[in-house]
Design a protein that fits this description.
Number of strands: 22
Number of helices: 6
Structural class: alpha+beta
Strand order of the largest sheet: 6-7-8-9-13-12-11-10
Shape: globular
Radius of gyration: 30 Å
Length: 440
């Protein structure tokens, strides 16, 4: 059994020229003679010192001995764990040794957030819980005329009469394209001026359609508060009507939402609109953060939606609806609903996953504001495909729409720069993707 501790190993490196008698005494005072196949303290230290003596470079001496000591100390720590003694002190001493000698102690730290703990190889249900890619295309390859746009930070997508419409939070235009995703097709155009408001991005995060009108929601916009020293943050709903040519739109109305956010981030990230059983038109806004909050956004399993209706030029809050805890996501990036039956899908960008559940209170394409909620017992959770090494590659899924009962269409935002996301995320960003749901 190894008995050499990391602090003793450090001493051997720092004082390699102690006389042989003292080193021999170390062994005598130790645990005794080792059996076959084992190595005593003296054997390890002598081997290290002997190796050091034959080296012409002091740097080489340190790293050669480091390798030997690392193996011994880790085995010693393992042995200590099995007996319940000394493991923490061994590792601490080992870390201290490497720090003193310029070694790299990063392996002793926790993994980076980007590292995935999920192991595809050992997941026997992988094929039943993972979406299958059908086809995909980057936004830049859709259009013959990109109207000088260089970025496509896609955020939401809908289907209207078999035609797809998508928005980007950096642009004021609406992208129109066919389900085939044919590159540079004449049917694929950008509606409106991407730079409608100079020096300001749209913040568009939600798009849906009702009664010849496109509703788009700006996530959270700074408003002047009742106290001029304090700002307030509210989403803004724009109602847009296409012109006869279908290549531009007119602004029918722009009204704020009563619901207040904590800042310009973590506002409404998804939603839908539907007529109510009482004749009113309602909007459901999906909050990006848990608790509809920036401060509490990391408290998984507390997703919320806000039901609103229009009063004058204000979308007043009717009630908040809790998303079932089975959708235990870090964030909520979009949603889509089948009006005929209330089937709903909610995506998470951070978790590269989606949740499919059942809303109640929807009858024949109309919602009952008093009954609107979820059936807690009906749900499935699926993941977007992983890379060949089982890492997340669909890192920025922001928009989602049902193609039919078996397929969905998704859009991806631009990957985060400055090292905030892995290089793997570049391949799938700013793109449209069609997926098949698992066959169970």
């Amino acid at each position: 059994m190894f008995t050499l501790r990391a602090n003793e190993a450090t001493r051997l490196i720092q004082h390699p020229r102690e006389d042989d008698a003292e080193r021999a005494g170390m062994n005598t005072a130790g645990t005794g003679t080792t059996g076959t196949g084992a190595t005593s303290d003296l054997d390890v230290s002598s081997a290290c010192i002997s190796r050091k003596s034959s080296s012409s470079s002091s740097t080489s001496k340190i790293f050669i001995c480091s390798a030997i000591i690392l193996g011994v100390a880790l085995l010693s720590a393992f042995t200590s764990k099995t007996t319940g003694t000394g493991m923490d002190s061994d590792i601490s001493s080992l870390a201290g040794f490497f720090h003193m000698h310029g070694g790299d102690t990063r392996t002793l730290k926790k993994k980076k957030k980007d590292d995935d703990d999920y192991d595809c190889k050992h997941d026997k249900s992988y094929s039943k819980t993972t979406l299958k890619l059908a086809y995909e295309l980057p936004f830049v390859a859709l259009f013959q005329d990109t109207k000088h746009e260089k970025k496509f930070e896609a955020s939401s997508i809908i289907i209207v009469n078999d035609t797809y419409y998508a928005i980007c939070d950096n642009s004021w235009a609406i992208s129109r394209f066919t389900s085939s995703l044919t590159p540079f097709s004449n049917d694929n155009i950008m509606i409106g001026d991407p730079n409608r408001e100079e020096d300001e991005e749209s913040g568009y995060e939600v798009i849906f359609y009702n009664n010849s009108t496109f509703y788009v929601i700006r996530e959270s916009v700074k408003h002047e508060g009742t106290d001029k020293d304090e700002a307030e943050y509210h989403a803004i709903v724009e109602e847009l009507v296409l012109n006869d040519a279908g290549d531009d739109y007119d602004i029918k109305d722009q009204c704020s939402c009563e619901f207040e956010f904590e800042g310009t981030s973590k506002g409404f990230e998804g939603g839908f609109g539907m007529e109510g059983t009482d004749g009113e038109f309602y909007i459901v806004g999906l909050c990006e953060g848990n608790h509809c909050s920036e401060k509490k956004k990391d408290d998984k399993g507390h997703g919320r939606m806000v039901l609103m209706k229009k009063k004058g030029c204000l979308w007043i809050t009717v009630k908040q609806i809790n998303i079932p805890k089975t959708a235990s996501f870090t964030d909520y990036s979009d949603m889509s609903i089948q009006e005929k039956n209330g089937k709903v899908v909610i995506t998470s960008q951070e978790d590269s996953a989606l949740w499919i559940g059942q809303m109640v209170g929807i009858v024949n394409g109309k919602l009952d504001p008093d009954l609107l909620g979820f059936d807690e017992d009906v749900y499935d959770v699926y993941h977007f495909p992983k890379s060949d090494t089982c890492k997340t590659k669909y890192c920025n899924i922001e928009g989602i729409a049902f193609i039919n009962d078996d397929m969905i269409m998704a859009v991806s935002d631009k990957m985060k720069g400055k090292g905030k996301q892995s290089y793997r995320c570049l391949d799938k960003d700013q793109s449209i993707h069609a997926f098949a749901l698992p066959y169970v």
